[in-house]
Design goal:
single chain, 7 helices, alpha/beta, 8 strands, two-stranded parallel sheet, 6-stranded mixed β-sheet
């Protein structure tokens, strides 16, 4: 009788923030449907074609003068996405503006995605960069459906993320600090 383990290859990455971002980038790099599903989720207007996928670049832990980015997705002149990954109660307040100058100026669509374990509904557009805050649970839900669940790379990622990071629940942030003028301006401009 063969012994079945509950581990998968992604467990070799460890269980810190870098491991989770590498596991997610591996999922995106190994499956074009997952890659384009994530881009659509972010609002990047690009078609799921083999040519677009092969023209795309996925970079992890890129060192820049602004700091080290976790994941970058790009296609020359079309889009540039920087993904900052947080686990636990990691807040990404500094990163919301830290990487604004790091974007490829020729990209038509620029998105800074901040992934954390807490839902943060703040939405901004600064210097032509869309700043989208989302949660790891939303990413899990994005791929936990009949279109993706039959793919081994997806199930491995889902198991890895939920087991190692206990992402079975979502802590939602719904309160805006009304004493903060930035929050008031954001509400007035974006109605959020």
């Amino acid at each position: 009788e063969t012994h079945k383990t509950t581990y998968n290859l992604l467990d070799l990455l460890g269980s810190d923030e870098v491991a989770l971002s590498k596991a997610f980038s591996f999922l995106l790099a190994s499956d074009n449907d997952c890659y384009f599903q994530f881009l659509r989720f972010l609002g990047v207007p690009i078609k799921n074609t083999w040519t677009n996928y092969k023209s795309a670049t996925i970079t992890t832990e890129k060192k820049r003068k602004e700091g080290r980015t976790d994941i970058e997705l790009s296609q020359e002149n079309k889009y540039h996405v920087i993904v900052e990954c947080k686990i636990g109660k990691g807040k990404a307040i500094k990163q919301r503006t830290q990487y604004l100058t790091a974007f490829d100026t020729s990209a038509q669509t620029k998105v800074l995605c901040i992934l954390s374990q807490e839902r943060d509904t703040n939405k901004q557009i600064e210097k032509e960069v869309i700043i989208k805050n989302t949660s790891w649970l939303e990413i899990i839900e994005l791929f936990n459906n009949k279109h993706f669940i039959q793919k081994p790379s997806v199930t491995d990622f889902l198991k890895f993320a939920t087991k190692n990071y206990k992402m079975n629940e979502l802590k939602e942030i719904l309160i805006q600090d009304l004493s903060d003028t930035i929050e008031i301006e954001r509400f007035k401009e974006f109605r959020i």
